[in-house]
Structures are given as structure tokens and as C-alpha cells.
């Protein structure tokens, strides 16, 4: 019985040590509450829980707070536009910070974003990358300080 209990505890420890998917990693990080709510409103949770891999340039709650409340509320109610905005933050593949190269990268939305190194600060369009390499089992999250808006 003691061996069985030890085996169960070990199995639980191994399971909890594994990385979560993109959505759960965003939830665990604690500063992506608005993003997670937006993913739910756009019905994109299952997509970002999928096999991927995905690289998500994830706006923090502070980034969403820069958008005027009325405009953000309207965006959250317009599923088509919200989906366009959110998928503009996602790139196919798992790109760790050390592998990021300056240039244009096509997003899942279809348009390209521009990655640049401005005096040692990595930028995505006009957004500063605040934190890199939040690893998930189906990709990686890089926190950004501004919500990117497609054309």
C-alpha cells in the first residue's frame, strides 16, 4: 500500500511539473486576465489549447488598459473583429527569444508583424516585449506592453 501511495504521489508530481498549454500558462502567469477573457469571447480557447505549436505575443492586462474602455468593450462584443485582433498576436511555430530574428513574420490572422531590435529592446510592431519565453507544452508566450491592431 505504501509503494502504491508513493507511486501515485510521484505520478502527480511529474504531471504537475509538466508545462501547461498556452491558455493555462497565460492564466498561471497572472497578468493576462483580459487576454484570457478575450480568448473566451472569441471562442479561441480550444485553438490555443490545441497541438500547435504557437508563439503568442500576449498583451498584458496593462496593455489592454491602454485601450479606452468603450472601445475595448465594443471590441469584446464584436467576435469577428476580436478574432482578427487576437489571431494577429499569434505566429505558427514555437519561437524562443534566442531564436527571434528581426523582420516580418506572418500571423495566423494573415497579416505580418514586424519584429525589430531597437537599441537592445525587442519590439513587435509598436509593442515592447516585456518578458520572454513563458513556455507552454504547445508553444511559447512573450508578454508585450501594447495590443497590436491589424490594418
Q: What shape does the CA trace take?
A: globular
Number of strands: 7
Main sheet record: 7 strands, mixed
Unreliable residue runs: 1-17
Q: How large, in whole angstroms, is the Cα Rg?
A: 17 Å
> How many structurally independent domains?
1
Helix content: 25-40%
The DSSP helix count reads 7
- Which topology does CATH recognise? FAS1 domain
The average pLDDT score comes to: 87
How are the strands of the biggest sheet laid out side by side?
2-1-7-6-5-4-3
The protein's oligomeric status is single chain
**N→C terminal distance:** 62 Å
Order of helices and strands: HHHHEHHHEEEEEE
Supply the CATH superfamily name. Answer: FAS1 domain
Give the C-level CATH assignment: Mainly Beta
CATH architecture: Roll
Protein name: FAS1 domain-containing protein
InterPro entries: Adhesion/Biosynth-related, FAS1_dom_sf, FAS1_domain
Pfam families: Fasciclin
Organism: Polynucleobacter arcticus
Explain this structure to me?
The chain is an alpha+beta fold and 151 residues long. It has one domain: FAS1 domain. It is 40% helix and 26% strand. The chain contains 7 helices and 7 strands. The protein has a 7-stranded mixed beta sheet. Strand 5 and strand 6 (127-136) form a beta hairpin. Helix 3 (33-41) crosses helix 7. The longest helix has 16 residues, at 2-17. It is globular. Residues 1-17 have low confidence and may be disordered. Residues 19-148 form the FAS1 domain. InterPro entries: Adhesion/Biosynth-related, FAS1_dom_sf, FAS1_domain.
Amino acid at each position: 500500500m505504501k509503494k502504491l501511495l508513493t507511486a501515485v504521489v510521484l505520478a502527480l508530481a511529474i504531471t504537475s511539473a509538466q508545462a501547461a498549454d498556452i491558455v493555462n500558462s497565460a492564466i498561471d502567469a497572472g497578468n493576462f486576465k483580459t487576454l484570457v477573457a478575450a480568448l473566451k469571447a472569441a471562442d479561441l480557447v480550444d485553438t490555443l489549447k490545441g497541438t500547435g505549436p504557437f508563439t503568442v505575443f500576449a498583451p498584458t492586462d496593462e496593455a489592454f488598459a491602454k485601450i479606452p474602455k468603450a472601445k475595448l468593450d465594443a471590441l469584446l462584443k464584436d467576435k469577428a473583429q476580436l478574432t482578427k485582433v487576437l489571431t494577429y498576436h499569434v505566429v505558427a511555430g514555437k519561437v524562443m527569444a534566442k531564436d527571434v530574428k528581426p523582420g516580418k513574420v506572418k500571423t495566423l490572422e494573415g497579416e505580418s508583424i514586424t519584429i525589430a531590435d531597437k537599441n537592445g529592446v525587442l519590439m513587435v510592431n509598436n509593442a515592447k516585449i516585456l518578458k520572454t519565453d513563458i513556455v507552454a507544452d504547445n508553444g511559447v508566450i512573450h508578454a508585450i506592453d501594447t495590443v497590436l491592431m491589424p490594418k
